[in-house]
Amino acid sequence: MLKIKNLHVSIEGKKILKGFSLDVNAGEIHAIMGPNGTGKSTLAAVLAGKEGYEITDGTVEFEGLNILELEPEERARLGVFLAFQYPVEIPGVSNANFLKAAVNEIRKSKGLDNILPNDFLKMIREKMELVEMSKDFISRSVNQGFSGGEKKRNEIFQLAMLDPKLSILDETDSGLDIDALRIVANGVNKLRTSNNAFIVITHYQRLLEYIVPDIVHVMYDGKIVKSGDKNLALELEEKGYDWVKELDNVPAN
Amino acid sequence: MNIDTLKEYTPKVIESTRQNSLMQAIALGIPSMKNEEWKYTYYNKILQQGFAPTYTPATVNIKKDFIDKHSVSGNNIVFLNGIYQPELSSLKPSAGVVFTNTANTSEQISNDFLIELNNAFATDGLYLEISDNVILTDLIEVLYIQSNTSGIIQHRNKIKIGKHAQVSLAEYYISYDNLPVYVNNVTHIEIDERAIFDSYKIQDGGEVFYITEQTFVQQAKNSTATVNTFSLSGAITRNVLQFDSQDERTLSNMNGLYLLKKNEHVDNRTLVNHNAPNCESNELYKGIIDGNAVGVFNGKIRVAQEAQKTNAFQSNRNILLSEDAAIYTKPQLEIFADDVKCSHGATIAQIEESELFYLQARGIGKDVARGLLVYAFAGELLEKIKHEALKLSLKKRIADLLNIEI
Ligand SMILES: Nc1ncnc2c1ncn2[C@@H]1O[C@H](COP(=O)(O)OP(=O)(O)O)[C@@H](O)[C@H]1O
Ligand SMILES: [Mg+2]
After folding, report:
1. From B372, which residue of chain A is nearest by alpha-carbon distance?
2. 3-state secondary structure of A211
3. Chain B neighbors of A91, CB-CB under 8 A
4. How far is Cα B204 from Cα B37, in angstroms, rounded to an integer?
5. What CATH number did the domain enclosing A85 receive?
6. What 3-state DSSP class applies to B336?
7. Domain extents for chain B?
8. What is the pLDDT at residue A253?
């Protein structure tokens, strides 16, 4: 589904990603772990198409298509979804109007008519249940005045509404208490199918107890330095991130 | 038109008051950009379109369904090219409401060219008198419909609101055929004690519609007046809005939204004269400026020495959507009292990139995403509309202009 080869990315001349490679197939959950400042969010932003990044080398293919030249909305319509580490507050735009626009824009790109108001409401109700959003949520402005946990749940709620093929969760667990963490993980587990895939970026092993990854990658200084099964997360938790720095000196597999 | 054209009219104007006004207009001369009040608006550009004063404007046949399409309350007074149209109007008769069509021109000579032009030539207008204690729930609508005329169309309006009365009025500037037209309106409003008056001005005449209008509001003790100005389309629009607070505890609200694109130009000039103690004024103007369009905002608050305990707030916020868009904004506070609370602020911003990206990342195209953000910015002013049908109709219109669905 996703093939990243030797990706090099700079911001304002500063090298952030330094030969990042990753293959993700449908049905898989990949975890990417690594210390702060390693380039995890940069990777997520580059995949989603945020401006301001200089791609100096490498390729990114999504379902055989080079997506690096595409606008963010075009990538989203193809089925790439980024759950933001820091969801943006948008005063004055209601969640309802926002989601209706998103659903309809994606439908339009597939040659479908606008969703019927009743179907839309039904869909919202169903997906809100999934992440246990309160009822007033839909009339509130996007993320405005939301608690940290609500913002993260809103990301998963949007994920459920848009039903993407590839979801990138950027530290969705950070700032969540254990209950919220369970809600979010439950949501993801219910949305998981053999046709979609997830990249779960996290700092802590904790989330991976709930969302069990097929493959764990350790990232350091802009690239993957080690990959393994879910036990790698435990090993990392035990040995700490200093261990990762040592790994960086041996060539990645 | 130029000053020589005006001179040619002098033998034709018989009434002495009109003659005096015409002479004064000629003496004052056409407003020039050298005049501080006209610094950013080139008045001659309007006249260069070939407009000239007239007592006999052209007329056309307009169908009733055109009126229905533009009226949300069905309670309306229709003017076509400056002339009242009884057969097209449908003002519901109501006790304590007096309406006549008479131009209430003034015999006093002013120092304003456009007022004198209006004095000299306005032949029709709205005269509305609401008796004491009358509370009207139906919005009264005034439709200024213009159709293919080179005549300068001038309405002269006077509105009197009695004690404890409550009235809402919406004025619409409408083009029938999208051909160039110019309207120069002057309106005087007197609001008596404890009355509440809401005014909505909807300027949406299209790309070749020119407007200069001046509204003067006089408020008696404990009265509340709110004027909401929505400038949605138009070539050049210049709105002068003046509030005179004559006695204690008046509340004056001024709200404005201007949505400009291409080469459109809107100049909003407001003045609040606080002459008595314990009064309040609130002003919020918001602009969204795209293309090569230009916005001008000048908000003056004058607090006289005896107007102690005045609260006066003013805010002008703008979003520029293109590199060639411009806004000239200037607050002017003249405060002679010492115990007052006054604040003003002006902001000029662009669309927030992080917000735009967030929306795009959900599959929303850049244009629609911008539209949603602009609509959100405008929302604060739309929410101030008290009449639901009018609010809905303006929301739809603005969503349309922004190519979004709501
Ligand atoms: N907009 C930016 N401008 C300059 N440097 C940035 C910017 N965004 C991120 N960086 C830098 O890039 C590096 C990687 O950041 P990030 O991708 O956020 O790491 P992580 O998500 O792994 O914590 C950090 O050193 C950070 O300071
Ligand atoms: Mg990060």
Report:
1. A93
2. coil
3. 376
4. 24
5. 3.40.50.300
6. coil
7. 1-185+192-212+223-239, 352-406
8. 45
* Integer CA distances (angstroms), A215 to A88, A188, A227, in order: 30, 16, 7
Q: Which residues, 6 or more positions from A165, have their beta carbon under 8 angstroms from its beta carbon?
A: A1, A26, A63, A78, A79, A80, A195, A196, A197
> Pick from A72, A93, A141: which is nearest to B361 by CB?
A72
Do the chains contact at B368 and A101, CB–CB below 8 Å? yes
Question: Helices then strands (H, E): number in chain A?
Answer: 8, 12
DSSP strand pairing (B265-274 vs B236-245): parallel
**Alpha-carbon span B294 to B235, nearest angstrom:** 10
For B160: left if phi > 0, alpha if psi spans -120 to 50, otherwise beta; the answer is: beta
Q: Is the pLDDT score of A252 beyond 70?
A: no
Residue A117 domain flag: yes
Distance of alpha carbon B361 from the chain centroid: 40
CA–CA gap between residue B241 and residue B374 (Å, rounded): 25
- Its domain, for residue A100, covers 2-247
Longest dimension (CA), chain A: 57
Q: Which amino acid is at B121?
A: F
Distance from C-alpha of A100 to C-alpha of A73, rounded to nearest angstrom: 15
**pLDDT number for residue B104:** 84
Q: Count CA atoms within 13 Å of residue A91 on its CB side.
A: 7
Burial of A71 (0-12, 13-18, 19+ CB in 10 A): middle
Contact B314, B286 (CB under 8 A): no
Which of these, B270, B228, B225, B273, lies nearest to B250 by C-alpha position?
A: B225
Rounded distance between C-alpha atoms, residue B305 and residue B337, angstroms: 4
Encoded amino acid at B257, one letter: L
Task: Name the amino acid, one letter, at A82.
Answer: L
Is the CA virtual torsion B37, B41, B46, B47 positive or negative?
Answer: positive
- Distances B243 to A3, B111, B154 between C-alpha atoms, Å: 66, 18, 22
> What is the CB < 6 Å shell around ligand 1?
A 11-12, 14, 16, 34, 36-42
At B7-19, the pLDDT tens digits run 999 888 878 899 9
**Closest ligand 1 atom number to CA of residue A222:** 14
Does residue A253 lie within any of the structural domains?
no
Residues at Cβ < 5 Å from ligand 2 ion: A 40-41, 85
What is the number of domains present in chain A?
A: 1
Distance between alpha carbon B312 and the CA centroid of its chain, in Å? Answer: 21
Give the integer Cα–Cα distance in Å for B351 and B368.
13
Q: Is B377 on the interface with A (CB under 8 A)?
A: yes
Burial (0-12, 13-18, 19+ Cβ within 10 Å), A229: exposed
pTM of the model: 0.93
What are the E-state strand segments in B234-367?
A: 236-245, 251-260, 265-274, 280-289, 294-303, 311-320, 326-335, 341-349
Q: Model confidence at B349, in pLDDT bands (50, 70, 90)?
A: very high
pLDDT of residue A250 exceeding 90, the answer is no
Locate the DSSP E strands across B101-235.
Answer: 127-130, 140-146, 151-153, 156-161, 166-175, 181-191, 196-204, 209-219, 224-233
Going B333 to B185 to B396 to B180, the CA torsion angle's sign is negative
Q: What is the DSSP letter of B66?
A: H
User: SS3 for A95?
Assistant: helix
ipTM of the complex: 0.96
Q: Could you read off the pLDDT of B117-146 as tens digits, one per residue?
A: 999 999 899 999 999 999 999 999 999 999
